Amino acid sequence: MTNKSQILYNIFQEILAASGNSSDSQSINETKILSVLREQATKGQGNNLGSILVKVVSDAQSKLNLSIKPDPCGYCDGDFRHVIETYNGIHGYVSLLVCTIGVLANSMNIAVLTRKDMAAAPINRLLKWLAVADVFVMVEYVPFSIYKYLVLPEKLDFPYSWAMYLLFHMHFAQILHTASICLTLALAIWRYVAIKYSDRSHILCTERRCSLAILTSFILPPILCTPTFMVFDIHTKNVSDVNGNPDIAYHVDSDSQGTLYQINFWVHGVIIKLLPCSILTVISLWLIGALYSANQHQKNLRNYSACPSAEKMVKRQHKADKRTDRTTKMLLAVLLLFLVTELPQGIMGLMSGLLGPCFFKRCYNLFGEIMDMLALVNGAINFILYCSMSRQFRQTFRQLLLQRPLARFLPPAASHSESHNQNTCSEKIKR
């Protein structure tokens, strides 16, 4: 046995001894090594198969004085990589917490925005369907997170059913998330038209056009995501199980060769991400300018009013302007939060298309969990924005909580004006 072979033999003997199988160290084979590695991965505090393999390679490198060639793909190297990988290790638990909170929050959004006094406004209809899309994204993300981050590291099993679900998860999440992007873009354009052309907003911002915008937001995403459907597929790999028997592992991967692969990243990075972000940036800047101009106009009106009649009119106009400003500020917060979430994904997708598969595997996959978390937080935090910036939303939510459980199923009580009109009519009939 050569010197290097003896050193490798000793390393695997140490692994066997650490696992309590030192008596079997004389008969080391591939099956025994795999079995012990799996056993070591399932015991101990926080150890996994990846860390054990890293230790084996490190020991072999130091004892054999091997010089490992540097990775020709040097993207995303540095100290920050360790920090991101540390977060990726706890992403499963954090994402489950955010999804649970997000589903509850968006369910309350839907409950409030479907109330009769809220559903009349087209803006609230767009916000309602945005909450619906976010709910479906988070509900579907829960089983994916449980299996990938909690079950799979322990089982080290890649069955065909998991590959099928992973493919479904990839397409379903992308379609629904793209629908959220379209709805957010529709919100921004709707608000821009309502303020820019306020004298014609009753003609331009109609219920029919609102329904058309919602319908388009759910029809367009499957068309835009067509390249992804054609690029990603289920692939197989021949492996051996713990007993040394041949087995097949199924995983989802893309064909990194060909024009379609590049088109997919250009469509995803530019059309789905960067183009909406660019439009939203321009509209957000315009809305900020409109808010500033409105505040200056209100100050001028307050300074100009002198007579009591003019002062009453100014106060009435001031209240209406404040309601408009609150709505605009709330939507502006939604848009800016969306930009913070989506712009990094668009940049990463664009660079993956420009730099090729090397950047995608080294960087895009590295930041995948963080980008998922940003998207989940973006969908979960809207309820807080609505409550903090919309008095009508807070009042409706309070009424929804305080009403009796069966009150919504009872016929509405007649108001004082209605009862007065009924009494007046009956007196006229008697006369």
UniProtKB/TrEMBL annotation:
Subcellular location: Membrane
GO annotation, cellular component aspect: plasma membrane
Domain G-protein coupled receptors family 1 profile: 105-386
CDD domains for this protein: 7tmA_FMRFamide_R-like
Alphabetic keyword roster: Membrane, Transmembrane, Transmembrane helix
InterPro entries: 7TM_GPCR_serpentine_rcpt_Srw, GPCR_Dmsr-1, GPCR_Rhodpsn, GPCR_Rhodpsn_7TM
A GO MF label: G protein-coupled peptide receptor activity
Transmembrane segments: 90-114, 126-150, 162-190, 211-232, 265-292, 330-350, 370-389
Stated family: Belongs to the G-protein coupled receptor 1 family.
Listed PANTHER family: AT19640P, MYOSUPPRESSIN RECEPTOR 1, ISOFORM B-RELATED
UniProt-recorded name of the protein: Sex peptide receptor-like isoform X1
Organism field: Papilio xuthus
Originating gene: LOC106114110
